[in-house]
Amino acid sequence: MGKKIKIQFLLFLAIYIAVGLINARYLPKDPREVIGNVANRWIVGPEGVWYLRINPATIVMSFVVITILIWFARSVYKEFSLVPTRKQAFAESLMEFVYDIVQSSIPDEKYARPTFVIAMTLFLYIAVSNLISGFIPGISVEVSKVVNESGQVVRHVKFVLFNDTFPAPTSDLNTNLTYAVMVFLISQYFGIKAKGIKAWLKGFLEPIPIMLPMNIIGELAKPVSHSLRLFGNITGGGILVLALSYFVKYMFLPPFLWAYFGIFSGLIQAFVFSTLAIAYIASQVS
User: Fold this and answer.
1) Which of 260, 270, 278, 222 has its CA nearest to residue 104?
2) Residue (of 145, 175, 153, 226) closest to 60 by Cα position
3) Domain membership flag for residue 223
């Protein structure tokens, strides 16, 4: 380990211990005050108009993820050469790995290339989202609900530094459901394009016509299970880290938990989501 890395590590450790001591001094005594509002979301927009209500934390973090991906892509492009740099070799290896999975599932190049673009985009977005929101301590949003005298629900928003990780866009069900529905629509479109409308409709009657309702329910269940799987794993992991971290006053244990749920579990969930997208599209075009 180089001298520069040692200095950076010791500096990080000193800051981390200092923040942990501050949290230990000022944390509320009752754990219910810490995790009691974990299900509340920072929502803005008019009440009752669901399509005009948004989660600003999800929007901001999504732009952060997109910015990181664009920066990385530009840096690889600028340094592109026949003798690849580390970043270029990493990007090429990752894309080759995903493309091999796509090609083994969809031999037809006409559908393999667009499926690869979709799967690779989903994997990169979800992976980066889970990484920066899974193990990097940052600004978290605490929301409490209060009912005023007129019976309206008022949300009080408080920004807290370094007692949790950045909010993950993938912990918002709206984000996951959007991508799952997108995969569902694309897979159905590819199925119609590959088989023709008559053969596509006939597929809902197989193996026997009486299975039509079950086949329709099975197709509609795909985006639901696709989105809920990612949402449940990311949100559940975040709640578990927050609850366990409180009992040790955010000292020593959180880095290991953040590393597991952010790096290991986060990357696996990104891989599973993108692989399922490939499988759903392949089942329609085959």
Assistant:
1) 278
2) 175
3) yes
Lookup result for tokens 């394009």? 193
Q: CA-to-CA distance for 19 and 285, rounded, in angstroms?
A: 54
The residue among 129, 223, 124, 136 whose CA lies nearest residue 169 is 129
3-state secondary structure of 44: strand
Contact 61, 171 (CB under 8 A): no
273, part of any domain: yes
Q: What is the DSSP string of 137-188?
A: EEEEEEEEEEE-TTS-EEEEEEEEEEEEEPPPGGGSHHHHHHHHHHHHHHHH
Distant-in-sequence, close-in-space partners of 70: CB < 8 Å, separation ≥ 6: none
Note whether residue 250 is domain-resident: yes
Using one digit for the tens of pLDDT, what is the confidence trace for 146-195? 666 666 666 666 666 655 667 788 888 889 999 999 999 999 999 999 99
Residue 9, domain member (yes or no): no
**Interatomic CA distance for residues 59 and 169, integer angstroms:** 8
**Residue that has been written with the tokens 């997109």 in this structure:** 66
Q: What are phi and psi of 106, to 5 degrees?
A: -130, 90
Q: Which domain holds residue 197?
A: 32-285
DSSP string, 100-115: HHHHHH---HHHHHHH
Does the pTM exceed 0.85?
no
Decide if 238 contacts 261 (C-beta within 8 A).
yes
Number of domains forming the structure of the chain: 1
